[in-house]
Amino acid sequence: MCSGGGQVHYFWRFCSTSKHIEETAEFATEKLIKSGYRIAGILQADLEGQIEELLECAERGDLEPLKHIKRIHRAKPLDIYEIRWTDIKVLKAEKASGLYRQANVHLRLYTVEEGDSWVVGLYLHEKKIVNGDKAETNRLQYIEIDAAIELCEKCSEDNWKVSELDSLRKRNKKPPAV
């Protein structure tokens, strides 16, 4: 749906406010900072702007397949998709000198759709790329995908703690995704 031209509402799992896109952007920033990257000022504004822009495109149904979104076939029968950000600029400390240099990271957000007019952001992570070792890069990615699938299955009955979904799912009388 996010790439099919249809409008959807985006919800971030466990979101306690109605600001789902903003909370996703804040979560991404916090996650990268916890991973040791320095993100402040213009870099933080740019990161959060990129996250918000792509999620707003998702709500409009304007994501480009493969460039911005990809179906996760490993997750069948669930409808889990990967929303992609590439070349997010961050600062990374050099081990020897302690000085910071600019680096680019890739973020991935796994979402679930149930065919309705909404999508839930489940799990966000930095894609680790092992230079020269595609198999290892894929192995690391599969670990993250499996964690997203597990989270989807475990929290589906509780609507991923998104209160807005309580009424939407009851109105459509759809069983949980699992």
Q: Please identify the structural class as seen in this structure.
A: alpha+beta
| Content of β-strand | 25-35%
Main sheet summary: 5 strands, mixed
Q: What count of helical segments does DSSP give?
A: 4
Query: Overall pLDDT, averaged?
Result: 89
Counting structural domains, the number is: 1
Strand numbers in spatial order across the main sheet: 1-5-4-3-2
Low-confidence stretches: none
> How many strands appear in the DSSP assignment?
5
User: What is Rg?
Assistant: 17 Å
**Residue share in helix:** 25-40%
> What is the element string, with H for helices and E for strands?
EHHEEEEHH
Amino- and carboxy-terminal Cα gap: 19 Å
Name the shape in a single word: globular
Describe this structure in words.
It is built from four helices and five strands; from the N terminus they run βααββββαα. The longest helix has 22 residues. The chain has a five-stranded mixed beta sheet, with helices on both faces. Helix 1 crosses helix 2. The protein has 178 residues and is of the alpha+beta class. It has one domain. The two termini are 19 Å apart. The radius of gyration is 17 Å and the shape is globular.
Task: For the structure shown, list the relevant keywords.
globular; alpha+beta; 178 residues; 38% helix; 5-stranded mixed β-sheet; 4 helices
Summarize the topology.
Blueprint lengths: L8 E4 L7 H15 L6 H20 L8 E3 L8 E14 L6 E14 L4 E10 L6 H22 L7 H10 L6
Parallel strand pairs: 1-5
Antiparallel strand pairs: 2-3, 3-4, 4-5
Helix pairs in contact: 1-2
